[in-house]
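Supplementary Note 3. Input sequence used for the single-chain structure prediction.
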Amino acid sequence: MLAYYADHFVLPLPPGHRFPMRKYSMLRDAVMRDVPGLHLHEAPRAGDDALRLAHTEAYIRTVSSGLLDAARQREIGFPWSAEMVERSRRSAGATIAACRTALEHGIAVNLAGGTHHAYADKGGGFCVFNDAAVAARVLQRDGRVSRVAVIDLDVHQGNGTASILTGDDTIFTLSLHGEKNYPFRKEASDLDVGLPDGCDDATYLDALARALDTLDARFAPDLLIYLAGADPHEGDRLGRLRLTMAGLAQRDTMVFDFALSRRLPIAVAMAGGYGNEIENTVAVHAQTVMLAARFHERYRLLQISAVADASAS
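The predicted structure, written as discrete structure tokens, is reproduced below.
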């Protein structure tokens, strides 16, 4: 299985900044050690031609040229730097690459991404460019897919994704999130499921099962983009839900089983994770990558079986 990384593009954040930048290099180390058959590739860079499919020309220019004013930088949560621009482009490029690879091999992973708070004309919540929206539209532009579903299981609602893709009936947005958590002004996804503070494994998994059934009934995608946030974990300082490691494993397995049963390719992005202990966040993300690798093997065997059946007939 292929996974794309950009953790060597490190933002020069001030001391005490709350964004856990270190988790990305820790995650790469963990999956290199623990996930058999994983092949790591440096994330390609998303160019302006790709970013324009989801963002305004003025916003791309303002970010790239270092012209973001102080208020916009505060809204993003990062001080502007050339490293911020490059990492954001690479993060979008990694999800594009993961989508392209998934069409060939069933699944691929971006070891970052899930920047779902970025709007067409502004960033927010540690998100500069919206990798899922950009990637979905790049794959459509290139004629690789017609219909894409974004399954967003970060604990925070995917407001930027919903805003960018509103009115686009070729891309379905599903967001399962903490109802009272950030962002406090939600946008309308195609399917929003708000969960109460303290939500446990059983409640969450029941809501996810019903949401996937609704997606299945309402939309027939050619590709899934899965935002596998670590922040629903009980040890997350921003999440306010109470999912265990076992519950999160069941969550990922449900999404992967949904894809496999329908022979749908799936690109996975890590999205958020702000554990009280950074090791817990890394463990959740690494578990997702491990389960993705198992999906990859199952998908490969299904393809071999399909070829054998076709030859026999």
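Strands lie at 2-5, 39-42, 107-110, 148-152, 171-178, 191-195, 223-227, 266-269. Residues 278-312 form the longest helix (35 residues).
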